[in-house]
Amino acid sequence: MKKFLSSVLTLSLLTSMGAPALAAAQADTMPAKSASGTAAGALDERLAAVTRMVKSSLPIEEILAALGGEPEFNGNANDNAFAPRWNLEWAVDAGSISVVAGEDGKIYSYNLYFKDSGHRNFWGLDAAFPKADKDKALAAAQEFADRLMASGESVQLKASSRASRDVLEFTGTLLLNGLPSPVAVSIQLRPDDLAVTNYHRDDCYSSIRPEIPSPESRTNAAKAAELLRSTIELTPYYVIGKDKQVASLRYVRESEKKYIVNAADGKLVDLDEVYADLADRYNESGAKRMAFTLASYTEDAAADTGASPAEASGGAQLSDAELKTIEGLKDVHGREQLDQVLRGISALGLDEVWTLERISYSQNRDTGDIFAQLRYARPLTEEERAELEEGYEGELLQITKTVRINARTDALKSVYTSNPAQTERMLVQRNQPQTDEQRKAAEQFLKEHLPERWEESGIYTREDDKRLMYAQRVNGYLFPANLIAIRMDENNLVDSLNVDWDDSISFTGVNDIVSAEEAVDACMKAFEMPLAYVEYPVLEDQIMSQKYVLAYAFRYGDDRRFGGIDARTGQPVWDTYGSTGFSYQDLAGAEGRAEIEALAAYGIGLPGSRFEPKAKLDQKTMLVLLLSACGNEADPNTEQGLDALYQMAYSENLIRASEREPDAGVTRMMFLKTLLGASIYGDAAKVKGIYTCPYSDRSSIAEEYFGYAALAYGLGMVRGDEKGRLNPDHMITRQEAAVMLYGFMMR
User: Fold this and answer.
1) Helix/strand/coil (H/E/C) assignment for every residue in 491-517
2) Of 490, 433, 481, 434, nearest to 460 (Cα)?
């Protein structure tokens, strides 16, 4: 069925309508808009229109036919003010299809689930490389994404840094009018048949406004770069490197504020400040009663959507299951009607200072009941804000009330109010910044009870106001990873204390380091500053949302984070988000280099920047390597980490507790026995009298290990040396172990 399903997906997408045709179909079938911009019409009519458009974009019926069985269908609205979304699901016994779509039929998320895909027949070490042509997989993913792009949208996919043996993943940045946006796009395919199992856009549930500004800039890129340069503030700190045992000096950005240069007027804008100003406006508005306009669905607009859902023209035909679900939404009350009902219940206190932010629907499949969940919010009053005046500048302060109601009968199901004023009143003392008197008491305590740590420490200025923090000082620079955090109560007694300190860390010298100005220069060379669309905070109708603005801004890349400028080399340090790979600096000339690097690309290897390929393998290092193939991370460099390593090894059936010898050397035979014994071949290897193998030194293989040796040969894990010998009792090197593990994964 898998190959048939794969061909269904490929042929259906290749023959499906392109973006222009899709846009035309959307224009013909999408419901009218109310004056506020939200979709108009009854829920059943809107669901019918969206379902038809989605089925025009995706081969839903063909996939369901391949899966087999009579599908059930469910569709629910997530009706926020600016970007309504529909959650659609088709389910059969063999699996399901779920889609998140906009009111215009644009697909933001797609997931194809097979019920047998998440179940393993064996629990243990079953790692294997995916058997797939990556070029063909990329082409299939790109074709799928291209078909779902709206007018003015595009994406160029590439292989994700998050390698996996279970899925092939490709990612890219959504381009609007050919320019980068904040939206990432990802696609996952099954390795065995290249069926697309997941498609996702980061704006899936975004409240960003849909309008896209013109791509034309009135600002000079060089001038924008000069303004952005002025925002770079660097502080030298010691930072732990990849090997986790050595800290080197880096220039680190103190502030992560989001600055942009607006392409329309060339002005430098602090987006955090914009948000804070809007939050202040929102907070101050709570002192008076505000008039506001409800987003309404007018009868005239609803009438424009056509006749009944079954009779509406355009888009794909609807199945009986889809029509049944759509009919189930008839007579369900919409946003305006439910809002009026709740505001009419005086005990809820939902007067005009409360704004309806969003509404979502859900259905009880057993009873057919439709429930709506409405979230209201209001600013704090002046009196309420007076209790929270310390430490809340620039934050959006609001009380929220979430009401769950039967969307047909208007019967209340639940009400939940989140009131930070009431909550914070009880914790106001704990949330106050530490006073000078409390700092004096804290430092006296540290001098008396942690004298050695205190002597090595300096004040860490990145305080969170609730605690006092002191970091280790080395060569005149702070090392924030070694940190003392302390809080004193109102009686100057220790309220909390945390000492996070590792004495095993070594530190590089500070001679011949680059200057702060040179570090800023390095930043400017390393950072990208493209003309791009960025999200800009907006407060309208008492709802905080985002809009797109064309601007210049620092952009590090979709899958990496800036880790600072190395103070010795002047080069940028990048940390990769979600990367499962390892990278080594000592593989030159290693016989197993290709195999080590292939394993590393899939997150299988040893932590640190050095693999030490010719070093003898000890037991704890063997377990780290094999556990990484099971998807586990372990660090045996501390006593606690070593214990955790062995607990994981026991649970994965790699060794028994009685065999624990962390520093003991590992023979070639013992490595094979450990690897195969924890795999699906473990029981078969124990069978005696049925195996043979062509190793020239097979007579030296103990009878209890003969099955493991034979299977290792048959699986292609090890063929023997130049004389055909297995050398079972020789101590194995790290590179030899990697080659054997690679052979196991290539089976």
Assistant:
1) CCCEEEEEEECCCCCEECCCCCCCCHH
2) 481
pLDDT above 70 (res 34): no
Q: Which amino acid is at 78?
A: N
DSSP conformation letters of 155-217: E--EE-SS--SS-EEEEEEEEETTEEEEEEEEEEE-TTT--EEEEEETTTT--B------S--
**pLDDT tens across 628-667, in order?**
888 788 778 777 788 889 999 998 889 999 999 999 999 9
Query: Is the sign of the CA dihedral 132, 138, 139, 142 positive or negative?
Result: positive
Distance of CA 74 to the CA centre of its chain: 27
State the Cα–Cα distance between residues 714 and 681, nearest whole angstrom: 12
Residue 494 and residue 652: Cα distance in Å, rounded? 43
pLDDT at 53 over 80: yes
The owner of tokens 């050398």 is 727
Neighbouring C-beta atoms of residue 71, cutoff 10 Å: 22
Identify which of 538, 563, 533 has the alpha carbon closest to the alpha carbon of residue 549: 533
Q: Which tokens go with 405? A: 């109601």
Tokens of 691: 């195996």
Give the Å distances, CA to CA, from 678 to 379, 495, 627. Answer: 59, 48, 11
HEC sequence for 615-632: CECEHHHHHHHHHHHCCC
Mind listing the pLDDT tens digit for each residue in 101-144?
999 999 999 999 987 654 444 445 777 777 778 889 999 999 99
Q: Distance of alpha carbon 229 from its chain centroid, rounded?
A: 29
Alpha-carbon distance values, 305 to 102, 125, 297, 311 (Å):
16, 56, 12, 11
- Length of the chain as a residue count: 747
What's the pLDDT score for residue 544?
A: 84
Q: Residue 529 corresponds to which tokens in the numbers above?
A: 């500053």
User: Cβ of 529: how many Cβ atoms within 10 Å?
Assistant: 17
Task: State residue 429's pLDDT score.
Answer: 60
The span from the CA of 322 to the CA of 574, in Å, is 49
- Single out the residue of 42, 83, 105, 29 nearest to residue 326, CA to CA: 42
Residues in CB range of 633: below 8 A, 6 or more apart: 607, 627
